[in-house]
Amino acid sequence: MHNPYPRPHEPQGSAGVSLSIFVDGHQQPIFDDQLGREVLELNLKQRIILGRQDVAKGDPGPFRTITFTDHRKLIITSFHQREVSRRSLDISPDAAGNYLRVGNIGNHEVPMSPASEGRIAHQQVRTFVTSELIQNPVRLMIGDNLAIQLSGFGAPAEHHLPEHSPTNISQSVADVAMMMRQSRMADGYATPSGPSSADVERILGAVSDVLEKAASSPDFFSSAAENVCKLGNFDSCSYLGLDQLANQWQCEATWPSTDSGEIEGPIYDSQALEYIWSNRQTWSTPVVDGEERPKERVVVTPVLSHDSVVGALYASKRPGLLGDDTMADCEVKFVEVIRDCLTVGLERLKKEQEAAKQQVCLAQFFPPGIADRILYDETLLETREENITVLFCDIRGFSTISSALGSVQTLQWLREVLGELSESVIRHDGVLLEYVGDELVAMWGAPDYQPEHPNLACQAAIDMIRKLDQLNQLWSDRIPDELLPFGLTIGINTGDCVVGKKGTDYKYMWGPLGPTVNIASRIQGATKQFCPKQERDESGTIYYPPEILITESTRLGVTTNMPTRFLGTIKVVNIPEPIRVHELSARASGSWNQLRQNYEAAYRQFEERNFLEALNTLDVISKVEECQSDGPTKCLRDRALTLLQNPKLIGKEHPVWMLDQK
């Protein structure tokens, strides 16, 4: 009978571990995103995180995998099962398939079955040997009814002694365990066929103890020194860091602990340190027949980073502890195994530092959640077409104010204003694209999926406008009174657009490209057209333009109740199609609904060429004190009066308003 869930393909002779899920004792199929189908057992070939569904990051439902750049994630519960952490287990197989490390990164301890295996405590790491999992699979109990089973398969790879690789810890462990058997140092547990599990467990315990320490923690190097002494029965061990600029060795940790300081002549063998620096190989005290025994035996091994020596482990012991005074090869290997742990830890620290720098850079443009997603999944930045919302924001009155402030204070003013505006973008999950002079450009809908991106953009725009009073107050003692208050003009548009990297090999940036962006820019520029060129008329009334204009496509995408009014249809430079625009109000007062209803009624009359009726309706607006400064009302009145007085000016595209400025 055909098996709908075949076992993942395993190369002949290979060894490894598979993972399966049981709920209430029943095995569940797992959707493997790499295979594109369901399997009953997931072949663990790389690091994988197990945890609860994270809806905010777009995780799929339970029992499905997601592949990121350097790891995978398996969703084991739905988002509402909060007793399971979003990141619960961190499982990493070694490259040779001989061992498997399971780290508990969740909030609760994890019992195991059979009960003799014990529990994995919070932040604890447990190492399993593949050959033992073949005979005795282990179940990790997560929650009341969920179990993760780890089963070994295949035959473990033979332990060879290849050319030394500084960061191949699993091979180093196998090497030293084999040497222990050959040199009969296994405390009676060695077997003719290979190293015993007791040997491996002892070495892995030391390895895990070092690897579990962060390279940035103060006890990282001291832990390494301590484990060297315990593994090889050394009297003392030090980690020496190499100051590349001063070309000096400095003791950063010693076990048993002593005061650290600069390395000087007789304390450490300078010839040994010179040897490992020049040859990048381990040095140990030579033994010459017939000569007097040395006072101590020493093993010094270099710690490398990108083929450069950055430090050394320096271990020493008194002679005679092994019957003869010959340093056993496996003792040298003990030091090298821990050295490899240091190398891996330092490499990991460097990657973490680089990732932190990258995260800082990403955080300058993307909201935190999206920045984290990009770190794990760089495909989010690949070129593709998305439905997005773009926002352009410009400071009204910038030119005159910058002339009054001077260049130095203008830069400070810009930093403060654009900083507050940018905070509004990030707070509402937007992406900061760029600053052009006093203009800010932002977008929503990419790189991560945001179904309500029109809402988010409009909320950010309203938030920006509501910050104006405070910003004007902060600068009231530096900007001349006659130039206050400064304002904002914002244009928002929604549509399909290509997003991705743009630019050249010399300089590139990520963002959208296409008509959707151009229209948003033109709409922002059109805000000032909805206000008379003479902002103050003969009666002394001051008129203000709409602060936020949104297109019809954005208005239709807004699902929440926001105060908008239809202003009309316009045609802007270099955009062939007419655009229906709406005002989005951030300061809607009690008279807003009356203003909106009367204005939209007047516009319909204007559209039908009933100019006199339109003027009468607009007069109703002018009688309301709060509405007397409304720029769009004044502009529509001027247009209606002009066409009433001179009907020959009515064009074929009426009532479309042809704007000749960007």
Automatic annotation (TrEMBL):
SMART domains: CYCc
Cross-referenced InterPro entries: A/G_cyclase, Adenylyl/Guanylyl_Cyclase_3/4, Nucleotide_cyclase
One example GO MF annotation: adenylate cyclase activity
Superkingdom of origin organism: Bacteria
GO terms (BP aspect): cyclic nucleotide biosynthetic process; intracellular signal transduction
Residue span(s) of domain Guanylate cyclase: 389-524
The name this protein goes by in its record: Guanylate cyclase domain-containing protein
Protein's organism: Blastopirellula marina
